[in-house]
Amino acid sequence: MAVRTTKSQLDTLLQLFAGSTHALVLTHNDPDPDALASAYGLATLLRAHRRKGQHINVAYGGTLMRPENKALARYIPVRFRRSGSLDFTAYDFVALVDTQPAQGNHSLPVDMIPSVVLDHHPRLLQTSNVLFVDVRPSYGAASTIVWEYLQVAGITLARTLATALFYGIRSDTLDLTREASDADKEAYQELLMYVDQVALARIQQAPLSKSDYRALAQALIRTELYGYLAIAAVDDVHRPDMAAELADLLIRMEGIKWVLVMATYGDTLILSVRTLDTDQNAGHLIRKAVGDRGSAGGHDTMAAGRIPLAGHDAAAEIQRLRERMIELTKAPAQGQKLIADL
Ligand SMILES: [Mn+2]
Questions:
Q1: What b/e sequence results for 229-257 when a residue is b if at least 16 CB atoms lie within 10 Å of its CB, and e otherwise?
Q2: Each residue of 128-174: pLDDT tens digit?
Q3: Model-level pTM?
Q4: Which CATH class is domain 7-204?
């Protein structure tokens, strides 16, 4: 079993922690399963080495959005604090997990440099100021990195922790099919035998709200097909990640290789793009479509964007993006409704 985290890395991390009185484990805003699980795992590692009188808090900013994420947070036996309620100046040790200082998706004040960064996203330049950095872009999940630390520390994982870390790896790597390294595969397999499958099934099948079904119905009725391109525009979604979920569903439609979902959420137009077209990059395409009207980015097959709507006409913006998407994907300009007879 090739654990890639070294004893010296573990010792350095624990030395930094040992010198603190108030430690904070912070993950990114609107945390996903990998963020929740890796924060839980790192907090467990620190707790196992905690001195008397030493405090450890775990926190995130934003909100839990998907029902699965809410269910996982409820299952994890750690009290997650909301970053809005924290006095960051009270902490003399901050560990960022599943994100980095300059990533822009967490709540750590910009003038605070964390003591530790554990992450699997591409390494950002500003991360060099941090005392202890372990960034492994080849890994599919931060949960894998944290699992290795727990292994090196010789900590026996509680069933809840094994289940959470397993789900973190499962969801970030789409069951080892997306950006999964050998390390992720190994952690996944090692954790598998300790997973509480019944609890995990309940988390993954967490109840959906009536608003979820309403958004789904509206998206399906509003879906227009332009040959291999499907476009859906939805009004007033109750949670911003609904756009991504709808896009994931629409890209499974036979004959479709591009999807754009646009959803208004408060004063923002949320965009989600999916593609099966291996010749084009969804991230590049959405940046071209959004231009300087908002922010956008992503990967080969999936991308997202946001356009502020304050003072704009949402319908005009949606129409502009629709035309731009048709142009960029070279789809037929004439569309037809997916469901015309309802
Ligand atoms: Mn992650």
A1: bbbbbbeebebbbbbbbbbebbbeeeebb
A2: 789 999 999 999 999 999 999 999 999 999 999 999 999 999 999 99
A3: 0.88
A4: alpha beta
